[in-house]
Amino acid sequence: MREWVCGCCGRWRVSVELIRGRYRYRLAHRYRPEFGGGANVVGEVSSVAELEELLRRHAPVGLADLHEAA
Question: Is the pLDDT of residue 70 over 80?
């Protein structure tokens, strides 16, 4: 599984998963440990264009702000 995180705070994450033979992009928001940790899945889409729209609607970051997680 590949994963990208935002460069500003690291709380916005996009993962790419193969589900039933199709790749899905999953946008998740991670909470800070002082707020209990955990993650909230914001949405799943099947194309980069849809991912860009999902980021624009729900996150303060764009595709250019994401980098591959180590």
Answer: no
